[in-house]
Amino acid sequence: MKKEILKIKGMHCVSCAANIENALKKEGGIKSVNINFATEKAYLEFDLIEISIARIQKIIEKSGYKASEETIEEVHDHHKDENVAEIKKLKRRFIAAFFFSLPIIYMVMGEMTGLPMPIIFEKYGTVIQFVLTTAVIVSCFNIWTSGFKNLWRLAPNMDSLIFIGTAIAYFYSLTISILIFLGTKIEAHLYYESAALILVFISLGRYLGTITKGKTSEAIKKLIGLRPKEAITIKNDEETKIPISEVKVGDIILVRPGEKIPVDGIVVDGYSGVDEKAITGEGIPIEKKKGDEVIGATINKTGVLKFKATRVGKDMVLAQIIKIVEEAMGSKAPIQLLADKVSFYFVPTVIGTAILSFIIWLLIGQPLTFALMIFIAVLISLVLAPWD
User: Fold this and answer.
1) Strand, helix or coil at 33?
2) Are 362 and 371 contacting, i.e. CB atoms less than 8 angstroms apart?
3) What is the pLDDT of residues 133-173, one digit of tens each?
4) HEC-encoded secondary structure of 47-68
5) Phi-psi region of 189 (alpha: psi -120 to 50; beta: other; left: phi over 0)
6) How confident is the model over 67-120, as pLDDT tens digits?
7) Nearest to 22 by CA among 209, 153, 162
8) 241 vs 49, which has greater pLDDT?
9) Distance, CA of 322 to CA of 219 (rounded, Å)
10) What pLDDT score was predicted for residue 344?
11) How many Cα neighbours within 13 Å face the side chain of 11?
């Protein structure tokens, strides 16, 4: 059995994680799978004879998400830059959506509270609401595309609920607006503000959620940040500085006083004290001489050391510690496993409940507009519940 951790991009809620888990569990050869939404990682145990990593990645990508392997050399800076870029992108989307929604909020609240209403709002209120709501939808269009794609794959998630609710509210309001514009006398309420404000709140939730998720892996980032980025190798009595990712087992590495030891190895020449507290917790520097083992990410204190690299990349002691920490973060309590199971059935249940509510209100004689309002209310109230 092989254990592997994959990085997954594109998850927006726990239902996304549940969808991926269930898709993988159907495949033979996978002994266990645990998708952690907070860390955006898949913790897998599988039989390499029956299934390959490439096959697992294809299954995840077929479900609508991106899966990739990350080496210890690239994960720190790459993950940090990626997370910062994602936060900035979501912040821009929220600010744009909020800016376009402000006049809509004023128009709706003005009607309810008697605020002074500008003439342009009174005269062209419907057109303004349509234009601004369209702008909000464009700002948050990724939510619609995600919701539609998952609905099309018959694996609906929270985005699917948002898409259904806001799309129905928007296109219903658009239809009423066109009928009014054509001179049809009709008494019906417009729901532009519902579509716009729901998307604004969801965008805010995504923005804050991404910030929170970035903080969950701080411990791992600090561990990875212990390693130097470069190493000095000696070949034919010449010193060459190379990226740590290019160090190979058997290379002779030189470490001067005050420098970090880049990889695990065995001392072949020199004598020094090495500060290992970052790895072992030992506060006093440990004497190292020929034949002694050194650990990557520890600090050479006093003398010059030459050592032969014995473990690099994922085989290093530090990498194994990081792996154990990640597996611990990815493990779930029994109550969390139950919550994940419930979330898998949550979205279809909500959609079914909304449709049932719509039909019942129509059957007991309520008008279409009222039944539609109930349908949207059921969808949206349950969509917003996980964000409270």
Assistant:
1) strand
2) yes
3) 999 999 999 889 988 888 888 777 778 878 888 888 899 88
4) CCCCCCHHHHHHHHHHCCCEEE
5) beta
6) 887 655 544 455 556 677 888 899 999 999 999 999 988 887 776 777 787 888
7) 153
8) 241
9) 9
10) 66
11) 25
Helix %, strand %, coil % of the chain (to 5): 55, 15, 25
Strands across the sheet with 272-275, in order? 286-288, 272-275, 299-300
Dist CA 382 CA 366 (whole Å):
23
Question: Mean pLDDT for the chain?
Answer: 83
User: Looking at the predicted structure, is the pLDDT value of residue 232 above 80?
Assistant: yes
| C-alpha closest to that of 298 among 266, 259, 325 | 259
Distances from the Cα of 11 to the Cαs of 7, 15, 37, 67, 201, in angstroms?
11, 9, 7, 11, 18
Q: Look up residue 372 and give its amino acid.
A: L
DSSP 271-336: -EEEE-TTTT---SPEEE-TT-EE-TT-EE-SS-EEEEEEE-GGGSHHHHHHHHHHHHHH---HHH
User: Would you state the structure tokens that stand for residue 134, as one six-digit string?
Assistant: 């369209």
How confident is the model over 304-318, as a mean pLDDT?
Answer: 91
Q: Are 16 and 314 in contact (CB under 8 A)?
A: no
Residues 6+ apart with CB under 8 A from 169: 191, 192, 194, 195, 198, 376
Bridge partners for 30 per DSSP: 46
In this prediction, what percent of the chain has a pLDDT beyond 70? Answer: 86
pLDDT above 90: residue 320: no
Which token pair is 136? 């909000």
- Cα–Cα distance for residue pair 386/388, rounded to 1 Å: 6
